[in-house]
């Protein structure tokens, strides 16, 4: 009975619920960070292929560079926003 009463106090404690929510949010954030890390390879591959394309077809350099720059800016913004949420 004492154990149950003690756990009931814990369960009713608002800070317990907040801590549990924080833990769940942290787990989701960690999963999201892992997903970003996994997709960083994809970004590097696209970047490499874009640079190779500009060497093979110099007439596309301006267009490809613009697209790659935009992609990198978006990625950087995503990373910085994600890191800011981690704080």
Automatic annotation (TrEMBL):
<dbReference type="GO" id="GO:0003779">
    <property type="term" value="F:actin binding"/>
</dbReference>
<dbReference type="InterPro" id="IPR002017">
    <property type="entry name" value="Spectrin_repeat"/>
</dbReference>
<keyword id="KW-0009">Actin-binding</keyword>
<dbReference type="InterPro" id="IPR018159">
    <property type="entry name" value="Spectrin/alpha-actinin"/>
</dbReference>
<protein>
    <submittedName>
        <fullName>Spectrin, beta, non-erythrocytic 2</fullName>
    </submittedName>
</protein>
<dbReference type="Pfam" id="PF00435">
    <property type="entry name" value="Spectrin"/>
</dbReference>
<keyword id="KW-0677">Repeat</keyword>
